[in-house]
Amino acid sequence: MPTMASVLEDPTLERHFKGHKDAVTCTDFNPNRKQLASGSVDKSLMIWNLASKARAFRFVGHQDVVTGVQFSPSGNLVATSSKDRTVRLWTPSIKGESTVFKAHTAAVRSVAFSHDGHRLVTASDDKSVKVWGVHRQCFICSLSQHTNWVRCARFSPDGRLIASCGDDRTVRLWDTSTKHCINCFTDYGGSATFVDFNSSGTCIASSGADSSLKIWDLRTNKLIQHYQVHSAGINSFSFHPSNNYLISGSSDSTVKILDLLEGRLIYTLHGHKGAVITVAFSRTGDLFASGGADSQVLMWRTNFDTKSYQDVLQQHSRRSTPDPPPHVTDIHPRGPHLHHPQPTAIQISPAVADTQSSDPHVIELGQAFHSTTAAANSHHSNGLRPHHTGSSRGEGWMGDESAGRAGATAGSQAGAGGRGRGSREEEERAQTHPLEALSGHPSCLESTLQHIVQQLDILTQTVSVLEERLTLTEDKLKECLLHQSHILKEAQSSGGRRRTESEETDGSPVHST
To answer: Does residue 502 belong to any structural domain of this protein?
Structure first.
């Protein structure tokens, strides 16, 4: 049985964030390692501070579902895409300012920065992929060979390529200099839902509504790994910065962690009720987030990436004895290699509770963009003229926008616990400070005790799972030994019968009557 040390290297639930009023569709970590952004069916962008007891911020502006979110490489901008056909660029400060431009003629499904932060790529239900200049929000080019809705588009690390995928069941690779489609992969049994490059840019992975996940080597244009580990469609995935691991979120309510060098599933995480729609590693890989239909954002500590890869292999050889030996060469096999579900993946089912703090205090920022204004602005060609939206602060959970605006002052006083003048001074001070500067009450003893209890629960559950797996291994071993013993006895008895028959044939004369 593995030692307790290896149990502590399993991923653990660190925080949960409640604040969205509907399904969470997208997540991304700030490169500064202090914030996490999420978008939702509730039309809002939320920015969560990772510091304990810090406030959360809701940015209002989109008129429909927020489908994609990403921090710029510098962390000073957040881009969001929406079914309202627009892209917004937010400044993640308490001013709540955003720039909005009409990006497509139909719902925008994804938005992503280039790695130098100068360009954006968007994918849309209008069957096109578009590239934009960030600083002037200017249209650069359109890529239009998809024949159905485009679900996702991403830049390669060097910015020379774009990968896109969609409901036409294809994954396309584009050259950004020539604007040509240079490759098209068409092996999907359903919609291709998500695509991304690994951190070195040598491979792309794509997921499908048929629950498959495929990894292609761009140097050979060959499929090198094919995983079929989920029982429903995969909605999102994320490469670990080391390229050794990949996490995926599925409509089967689970998050799966794949070991790409060993070529198999190593963890299944249960925490969401309903579909997992988004997963994302932090830029350093020490944390990852998941969000889903239950309106929650869960933040996990990775843990399994803290050891050297050889130590990880040794650890898993101890805990997964029924499996075949690790086949490291599968990262570049001669042909496609299908990885089927492994029953020995470690199942982690934490009790979903906030392990560090109570639900964060939420501050509402931004102002809804009225339909009349949007209609008037839609005449601008390609959305080249950006529209700036000011801030409108109102705290608490208001039933409608008018009530929120009317009660902004009262809500601020109530939300601040009646601190009055001190609260107003703090708010004014924060106008020019980044969001992470705002923090609330210090942690209490109850929260610490709850954290300890939750960790003990997780350890108990993990030990129980490992004991069950050990018992299963022992049973299989006994069954194998009994089977071998039975075969040996049969071989011995058949050998004895053959010798008897031979003696009867050779040594006994036949008498006739």
So the answer is: no
Structural contact between residues 73 and 415, judged by C-beta atoms closer than 8 angstroms = no
510 within some domain? no
**Domain boundaries, position 96:** 4-348
d(CA 345, CA 256): 9
Average of per-residue pLDDT across 102-111: 95
Predicted confidence (pLDDT) at residue 358 exceeds the cutoff of 70 = no
State mean pLDDT over 443-460: 71
Interval 140-155: pLDDT, tens = 999 999 999 999 999 9
- The rounded mean pLDDT for the chain is 77
Sequence-distant (6+) residues with CB within 8 A of 511 are none
On whether residue 94 sits in a domain, the answer given is yes
Q: Give which of 451, 401, 328, 404 is closest to 14, Cα–Cα.
A: 451
Instruction: Residue 365: name the closest of 69, 67, 46, 21 by CA.
Output: 46
Burial profile 265-290: b = 16 or more Cβ within 10 angstroms, e = fewer: bbbbbebbeebbbbbbbbbebebbbb
3-state per-residue secondary structure call for 90-138: ECCECCCCEEEEECCCCCEEEEEECCCCCEEEEEECCCCEEEEECCCCE
Examine residue 51 and state whether it is found in any structural domain, yes or no: yes
pLDDT per residue over 112-122, tens digit each?
999 999 999 99
What CATH number does the domain containing 103 carry?
2.130.10.10
Domain count, the chain: 1
Q: Do the bridges between strand 338-339 and strand 222-227 make them parallel or antiparallel, or are there none, so unpaired?
A: parallel
Banded model confidence at residue 333, pLDDT cuts 50, 70, 90: very low
Contact assessment for residue 191 and residue 169, using Cβ atoms and an 8 Å cutoff: yes
Quote the CA–CA distance of 359 and 55 in Å, as a whole number. 9
Phi and psi dihedrals of 36, rounded to 5? -135, 130
C-alpha 308: how far from its chain's center? 23
DSSP bridge pairs for 363:
57, 395
pLDDT at 52 over 60: yes
Q: Match 């149990």 to its residue by tokens.
A: 7
Beta bridge partners of 356: none
